[in-house]
Specification:
- By secondary structure, this protein is mainly α.
- The chain has one domain (2-151): Ferritin, CATH 1.20.1260.
- It is 78% helix and 0% strand.
- The protein has 6 helices and no strands.
- The protein has helices at 2-24, 32-35, 46-70, 74-96, 100-125, 133-151.
- Helix 5 (100-125) packs antiparallel against helix 6.
């Protein structure tokens, strides 16, 4: 029962973060600025982003539920808070302010944080750690998309 409470808690936090990020991006991909960018040929259609983030946050919340059930380390709380801040702020920096370079720095830092979650907790969680794979793969793709925009516009 405690695991379920943790998972629900993180589902609320993570989907809340997605909602905040969505509010901060100021119409994001529907703006004239984004529409006219030279985007990577591997940029997925818009609907993929919603599906991907839904899957990612369900898996990440489940992962965090198991992780916080096993340990209540302050370092984990700080790492989660950093992940949350980076994830939410990228939307604002990239889509709202058009800070493509800073966006690339932020999304690269987010990628490092998520990979650090995986590698630093693998021994503790074993196969549960693989719930981070969708997030890890998506961040690699998203980082490449941000980098392509930076270098080709």
């Amino acid at each position: 029962m405690k695991l379920l409470k943790y998972i629900v808690f993180f589902l609320i936090l993570n989907f809340g973060g997605l909602y905040i990020g969505n509010l901060l991006m100021n119409d994001g991909p529907q703006t004239y600025w984004y529409f006219n960018l030279n985007k990577a040929p591997w940029t997925p259609p818009g609907w993929v982003f919603g599906v991907a983030w839904t899957l990612i946050m369900i898996c990440f919340s489940t992962y965090l539920g198991y992780l916080f059930l096993k340990t209540d380390d302050i370092k984990l709380k700080i790492a989660f808070a950093l992940q949350f801040l980076l994830n939410v702020s990228w939307n604002y920096l990239f889509f709202n302010q058009h800070f493509v370079t800073l966006g690339l720095i932020v999304i690269s830092a987010l990628t490092v944080v998520i990979f650090a979650f995986f590698f630093s907790n693998y021994k503790r969680l074993k196969n549960i750690s693989f719930l981070l794979l969708p997030y890890m793969v998506w961040l690699l793709i998203a980082t490449s998309l941000n980098a392509y925009i930076l270098f080709n516009n």
